Amino acid sequence: MNAGIGYDTVIGMALGAASVWYLWNWIESDNEPSIPVKKNRKFSAEELQDFSGVNGRLRYVSTPSGKVFDVSKDAEHFTGDQSLSTELDDIKYTQVGTVIMKRDFTKMELAEYNGTNGRPVYICAKGVVYDVDPDFYGPDSPYEILAGRDATRALALVSLEQADVDNTSIEGLSWGDLNTLEEWIAKFEMKYHVVGFLVDEAPKSFLNKQRQQVVLSEKIEISHDTRIFRFDLPESNMVSISRVPLIIFLRFVDIETWTTSR
User: Fold this and answer.
1) Which of 58-67, 148-157, 190-199, 235-244 has the lowest mean pLDDT?
2) Are 199 and 105 in contact (CB under 8 A)?
């Protein structure tokens, strides 16, 4: 060979090029094993709707067991509801996670979700149950004592004392304590999924997009053009569960009763 390139060098370059061609075609072939997909992602019902298969998006569906599968390659066969009535073949389709199915919990049921026996870690605050990070709330974690518990009072007091965890009442808490509780709840709302509600603690909802009547209980005159009105909710154990600003329209009915609608 001329130009200083040896025969062995040419053979080596040819073999290298052939190897690259073979590997490229093998990667692109249908025989390639599926790239492992993280299966523990949790989807809310709203998040699952983002993977509807339209506008170039992937198509995900959920099964009765709560598993979420990527069916993009056969999207034309899954054009209906994303919540299927039958299970799928987990060999043919890749599981990409699970869907959160909201439900009601009793205190005994909630206690089972403490991060042991392969279960997730749930914590309740003001009647709402959250799926929280086991690294912070699971076994051998800093807040392990709160796992599987109604932590409402403990969060408000920023306390890990057993007595505060066992006592779920918010009676006697200061304004500052209640504000701290709301800060914890805001943090949970941003970071974690809501998985349900504590049925033996959760109050009935008010202002839930239905027209409801309230009674004027007190009117305080601050000045000639400023007054404070206090209203009694329809039932004593009701609270407003809305976490967004409300616009309330008041229509005068009589001297004591007002009708409100959201």
Assistant:
1) 235-244
2) yes
